[in-house]
Design brief:
This protein has one helix at about 10-15, and strands at about 5, 25-35, 40-45, 55, 60-65, 75-80, 85-90, 95-100, 105. It is globular. With about 110 residues, it is mainly beta. The longest helix has 9 residues, at about 10-15. It has a six-stranded mixed sheet with strand order 4-5-2-3-9-8, covered by helices on one side.
């Protein structure tokens, strides 16, 4: 069974902190070819499109386009604050390997 990605409460809370929905924006998570491992994540604030999968929580939205969706089955979209900085991260069970930068992976 194909399951959409999940978004943690921390990720939604961070979007609320930066006021994404107040600006009509959502967090767009996309997968593109490239990067050092074959695919890379593109994470940016963007306006939702009609064909996007919209994941909602705490009044905020995370959107995934139809092309990226199969690559993100069962993935978890989270927000982390570490010594190297605060950022949105993706835990993807479909990735067979990933790069140290955390934005590139292979399947």
């Amino acid at each position: 069974m194909k399951l959409p990605p999940k978004v943690t409460d921390r990720a939604f809370a961070r979007l609320a902190e930066i006021g994404a929905s107040n600006q009509g924006q959502a967090l767009r998570v996309a997968v593109e070819g490239g990067g050092c491992s074959g695919f890379q994540y593109e994470i940016a604030l963007d306006a939702p499109e009609a064909e996007d999968l919209i994941l909602e929580g705490q009044g905020e939205k995370v959107v995934v386009d139809a092309v990226s969706l199969p690559f993100l089955e069962n993935a978890v979209i989270d927000f982390t604050e570490e010594l190297i900085g605060a950022r949105f991260v993706i835990e993807n069970p479909n990735a067979t390997s990933s790069c140290g930068c955390g934005t590139s992976f292979s399947m």
